[in-house]
Design goal:
mainly beta, Immunoglobulin-like, 51 strands, six-stranded antiparallel beta sheet, 618 residues, ten-stranded antiparallel beta sheet, single chain
Length: 618
């Protein structure tokens, strides 16, 4: 229809232009019959719209321009109508409001001619939008010191589904859904909102809310004041924890509406302590911050702390906070850029204190930390942290060699296996990081007490390994071919201690050495001579067939006769404390027997670095 209007307008313009060219007088112009058309709708909201008409031909003129609308097709002036104030360039607009939400209307433009005839444009339709919901709130009921109930209602959904409704409240006027809220379901209808964890003797403001696809609607605002009650507190933090002391912080938020008679902290070794437990009081009985210093605590123990305040209504408590005093064992961490490269196959990570090598003290040396750390890069950057994170202190290098500086830059060290020590008794604290290479020395070793037999570091197992022929004599472990760092065993077992007694070897043989310095202050070794045992071997299950070290191939080897139908295992030191079995391609400690299906003379090898064996029939 609108295309037809354009065609008619174009025809009118062409006719007028033609008359000009032929020189007709005004009185000679042809008057077209009055005609108009429905034009457009625009600016639709939930309650209003702008409608327009267009004058196609004026005829003898009009006395009224406007639009009509209604719920059914082809409305007339007998339905709803609105008159336009003016016409501009043959077009007029009227704003229609007071419409129903989300409703389809029919409308037409109309004019009334000077002769009294009503002319209509074509019928067209528009649909109003949905609206936000209507929500109301009544007075608050059931008010206590910490609780209140509010009845609210969504009587009208705005013709769009209500997807959420509830109540919001605050100590400030005009609360929103960014304040404390309840969620009371969907749809229209009445609901009751429970407001919990309120503060006593406090004024609150509340509004109901409802959400639909159009937006968020709020009700009118109400206010209420809670009854008096016990004080409201927070237990904020426990800081500066040592082995026997800690600083504690809390806050009295409100008094509860009556005077506080006592406030402070309660302490116990069980959760949620009360005023019947250890009580630390504060002389200032007002709102505001509470602080105290706990002393006389036991080291390495877990404690629980709560702030408290008492008034005539009772005692209120803050949240329960757990903390532990420092143990006599102190652990420091050595994060850096070297960690991943130096500890393959581990869960360690670069610059991650919690997943880094450590140094520790002992009960007997509480201010001295020690440990061994491998750094595989050509240049390794690292720091100390006193916790498994970067808070509160990380220590770097100082302008004074050997001192620690809490604001100092990273340490930079070349590749090496370092013995790291920290002395916490000095001010400032000091450290050493000595690169070490390890060997076995002593009368039992090939070099005697003059020359070390060197071991090799294995990064995967984090141990020093090597094979040494020992005689029946004594030996020790030492670093860097010198006596500044050496380990023996004063207990006469596989546990090592600094400067400890010489270790006695009772059986001459080739020994597979493992020196494990990976656990701070707990250093161990194994010296294993290997043999074959089993009902397939010449000695049966009673006597080992000894294996010898093959230096050219770096394996233990033995040649022996094996019987069919039997089995064998690898056993260390003629003892079942340590044995290897299962698959020869992947031996496991304590593994199953290895079956022999064909009798014959065999050469068997054992690689203790890889736990792989070979069985070759000669």
């Amino acid at each position: 229809m609108k295309n037809n209007i354009f065609i008619k307008l174009l025809g009118l313009a062409f006719t007028a232009l033609l008359l000009v060219f032929v020189g007709c007088n005004k009185d000679d112009l042809i008057k077209l019959d009055a005609e108009m058309a429905t034009w457009q709708n625009d600016g639709i909201t939930s309650t209003s719209v702008e409608l327009s008409g267009i004058v196609v031909a004026e005829g003898d003129g009009f006395t009224e321009y406007g639009v009509v609308w209604g719920a059914t097709e082809n409305p007339t002036t007998a339905d709803s109508k609105k008159v336009a104030d003016s016409v501009e360039k043959a077009v007029y607009w009227v704003t229609v409001d007071g419409l129903e939400h989300f409703t389809t209307y029919h409308y037409k433009a109309y004019v009334i001619t000077n002769g009294g005839t009503t002319l209509y444009g074509e019928d067209d339709v528009f649909t109003t939008l949905a609206n936000i919901a209507t929500v109301t709130v009544d007075a608050t009921t059931g008010i206590t010191d910490i609780f209140a109930q509010v009845v609210a209602n969504v009587p009208y959904d705005g013709k769009a589904e209500v997807t959420a409704k509830g109540l919001c409240w605050s100590m400030e006027a005009n609360p929103t859904t960014e304040s404390d809220t309840t969620l009371n379901g969907k749809g229209t209808g009445e609901y009751t909102a429970d407001l919990t964890k309120l503060w006593p003797a406090t004024m609150y403001y509340a509004r109901a809310y409802a959400v639909n696809s159009v937006g968020l609607a709020y009700s009118n605002e109400i206010s209420f004041t809670t009854e008096i009650g016990v004080p409201v507190l927070t237990t904020d933090s426990v800081r500066d924890i040592t082995k026997t002391e800690a600083n504690i912080y809390g806050n009295v938020i409100v008094t509860g509406g009556v005077d506080i008679t006592e406030r402070g902290f309660v302490l116990a070794m069980a959760e949620n302590p009360t005023i019947t437990d250890t009580k630390i009081t504060d002389a200032t009985n007002t709102v505001g911050e509470i602080t105290a210093v706990l002393t006389g605590l036991a080291s390495g123990k877990a404690y629980f702390i709560r702030a408290f305040a008492t008034n005539s209504e009772g005692t209120g408590y803050g949240d329960n906070i757990a903390f532990s005093t420092l143990s006599n064992i102190t652990t420091w961490y050595l994060p850096g850029n070297y960690v991943v490269a130096s500890y393959p196959g581990s869960t360690f990570a670069d610059w991650n204190p919690e997943n880094s090598p450590i140094v520790m003290n002992t009960v007997d040396t509480p201010t001295s930390l020690e440990g061994f750390v491998y750094m595989a890069n050509a240049d390794n950057e690292w720091k100390f942290t006193a916790q498994p994170d970067w808070d509160p202190t990380a220590y770097g290098s100082s302008a004074n060699a050997g001192e620690l500086d809490a604001s100092g830059p990273n340490f930079v060290s070349p590749m090496g296996y370092y013995k790291v020590n920290v002395d916490m008794s000095t001010t400032p604290m000091t450290y050493t990081a000595v690169s070490t290479d390890w060997g076995v020395i002593g009368a039992a070793t090939p070099g005697g007490w003059d020359n070390d037999t060197n071991l090799t570091y294995n990064a995967v197992s984090q141990t020093w390994r090597g094979t040494v022929h020992l005689t029946e004599a004594e030996f020790k472990f030492r670093a860097n071919d010198g006596w500044d760092i050496d380990y023996g065993s004063s207990a006469g077992n596989e546990t090592l201690n600094s400067g400890g007694d010489n270790i006695v070897n009772d059986v001459e043989a080739d020994y597979d050495f493992t020196l494990d310095l990976s656990t701070p202050n707990t250093y161990t070794y194994m010296a294993n001579r290997w043999g074959l045992i089993g009902d397939a071997t010449p000695g049966g299950w009673d006597t080992d067939t000894n294996m010898m070290w093959d230096a050219a191939n770096n394996v233990f080897t033995a040649t022996l006769d094996l019987t069919a139908g039997g089995a064998f295992k690898f056993r260390a030191n003629d003892d079942w404390a340590y044995s290897l079995g299962d698959s020869i391609d992947e031996l496991t400690a304590g593994g199953d027997n290895i079956a022999v299906t064909e009798a014959g003379n065999y050469t068997i090898t054992l690689n203790t670095m890889t736990n792989v064996a070979t069985v070759t029939k000669n």
